[in-house]
Amino acid sequence: MNMHEINFDGIIGPSHNYAGLSLGNIASSTNAGEISHPREAALQGIVKMRHNMDLGLAQGFFMPLDRPNTAWLEKLGTDIEEADAHIRAAAFSASSMWAANAATISPQTDTQDGKCHLTVANLQTMPHRSHEWPGTLAQLHLVFSDRDIFAVHGAVPSPFGDEGAANHMRLCSSHDQPGLEIFVYGKTGGPFPARQHLEASKTVARTHGLAPDKVIFAQQSETAIAAGAFHNDVVAVANEHVLFTHELAFEHPQQLYDDVAAKFPQAEIIIVPADQVSLSDAIKSYLFNAQLVTLRDGEGMALILPTEVRANKAVWGYLEDLIAGNGSIRKLCPVDVRQSMANGGGPACLRLRVVADPATIDQRFMATSEKLDRIAETIEQFWPEDIAPDQLNDPDLESQIRTARTALLRTCDLAELDS
Fold first, then answer.
1. What are the structural domains, with CATH classification, of the chain?
2. Active-site residue flag, 163
């Protein structure tokens, strides 16, 4: 099979707003109550996808979920008009845009049955995300419908929180070769909850049929969680043979490095020292919430970074020194995703990595330049220009959001997702 890493980006939905619902996410909390710009946000995401395609990367996308989620409100015994403000905001949340939390993926080269396994994340720690997984699961079943190639699993049962690929890394000689899968879990983080439970990670590994000698379970640093690293991908990222991590990312870093060296000796571990880039600077700039990708034709790897990194002298200075060296990371690619960043998600949050043959994917979810043109036109026509927090009880806004999503589904010939 013609195996590639495909980056599936979540198209930013028309209900994108700044309600500050994500405890432990510094950017989300800082911008709570500000006016959001859904149209600008979604178009920034489209530009990022185009940028990735220009680099020669395979690119897919996911549809926004139906919002507000009135079925969830009904289960809570309320509706949009009567719900408390924080519940109403949770029902409107566009957080499914951060596709890194959609699922955990194990490619067919890693699994006992030779299928690519996907487990939808339950996201149960945060109320505004806990009701995402049924809609996400329905979409995964559609995108990866070939049961001879893909196995799509339901959510890990309560009470074990699972936040998907944002807490999962994979090391391999190349994407189409067997890999070492690293599951990162948390225990506590001062005032903030740890979102990924060890038992959830173990459940996913068992369900995917991963060999024990090809799996590592590593604890995220309590210091990192307390500083605002709500997911591991805020402080570490891996691609093929490279592990790029902050010095303070893991609770027992040397144990992890030793385990990696024993199970995958060819690994190149790049540790960013805290005395060069502080944990605070790393989190504020989203240095590690970058897409670390392999360029075509032996050009090495690139970091697709938020433009915010250039404003931080320590971070940008470190990165310039990094690519000037003789390592695998050779190119820096800043992209503007400011609307997503203001709500707490950088370039890596917006995408889910799937190693598969693109021909086996439902082609309606694969990006082409022409398709992105049509999607951008739909966004320009239907997405709200801005949303203020007090608009979430406005029936006209609710109607506009539903109309916008329906228009996008029709543009992409995905009417079966219209609910």
1. 4-417 (3.75.10.20)
2. yes
CA 225 to centroid of chain Cα atoms: 17
Contacts with 296 (C-beta within 8 Å, 6 or more apart), sequence order: 55, 56
Residue 231 falls in the annotated catalytic set = yes
- Number of Cα atoms under 13 Å in the Cβ half of residue 239: 24
Question: Which residues pair with residue 245 across a beta bridge?
Answer: 236, 271
Strand, coil or helix: what is 362? Answer: coil
Evaluated on CA atoms 90, 95, 101, 102, the torsion sign reads positive
At 163, list the tokens.
């936040």
Distance CA 186, CA 233 (A): 13
For residues 194 and 227, give the distance between their C-alpha atoms in angstroms, rounded to a whole number. 12
Catalytic residue among 116, 172, 333, 349: 349
Q: Is position 377 annotated as part of the catalytic site?
A: no
Peptide bond into 159 cis (omega under 30): yes
Specify whether the CB–CB gap between 39 and 384 falls below 8 A: yes
To which residue do tokens 């870093």 refer? 253
Residue 114 — left, alpha, or beta (φ > 0 → left; ψ -120 to 50 → alpha)? left
Q: Which of 132, 163, 240, 251 is catalytic?
A: 163
Among residues 231, 251, 333, 398, the one annotated as catalytic is: 231
Closest CA to 192 of 16, 329, 25, 1: 25
In 298-331, which positions are buried (b, 16+ CB within 10 angstroms) versus exposed (e)?
Answer: eeebbbbbbebbeebeebbebbeebeeeeebbbe
CA distance 323 to 387: 40
Bridge partners, 58 (sequence order): 6
Q: Give tens-digit pLDDT for 59-95.
A: 999 999 999 999 999 999 999 999 999 999 999 999 9
Q: What is the pLDDT of residues 125-152, one digit of tens each?
A: 989 999 999 999 999 999 999 999 999 9
